[in-house]
Amino acid sequence: MKTFKLISLQLVKKNEWLDIPLVDGLIINKEDDHSTWLIEGYIDKSFYDVFREAGAEEKELLVQVVITKKENEPAPFKVKVRSLQSFENHISVLLEGTLKKSTNRYAEILLDSLIQRGLSGDELMTEFKSGMVSKPKFNHSK
Q: How far is residue 21's CA from residue 67's CA, in Å, rounded to a whole number?
């Protein structure tokens, strides 16, 4: 198994990416025959119902995470809620699933978005470099 720091977590809700601000988190590649990953997020209690409902329904969720460094490309996963623990002001949610092969690469999506906004030349390059660091959110499931 390999463990990595979880930098960011997003969840698809009503066909939009919902940012789930992390207090802390980790992701584990179990390196098993099923290519299973475990994602644990320690987050604000306001997200309890979102994960409780998904867990009760055994619903598969689409999430994307950034691992280790903020500059890394988001990785999409199909997951199910395996555990949900409530604390005073936070919850711990354990997700289990597999890495989803992304048909679009993040840089291509970002570049297309900037071109659609009419950017070109130096302005395009500046915004592209900035976007590769700040990682604005895009729907990768198009």
A: 14
Q: Which long-range contacts does 129-137 make (Cβ < 8 Å, 24+ apart)?
A: 132/71, 132/107, 133/70, 133/71, 135/8, 135/66, 135/70, 135/71, 135/74, 135/106, 136/110, 137/10, 137/17, 137/19
Entry pTM: 0.73
Distance between CA atoms of residues 115 and 41, nearest Å: 35
Contact predicate 32/2, CB 8 Å: no
Of 12-16, 58-62, 73-77, 127-131, minimum mean pLDDT range? 12-16
Residue 13 CB neighbour total at 10 angstroms: 13
| CA 114/CA 50 separation, integer angstroms | 32
Side-chain-side CA neighbours of residue 38 (13 Å): 14
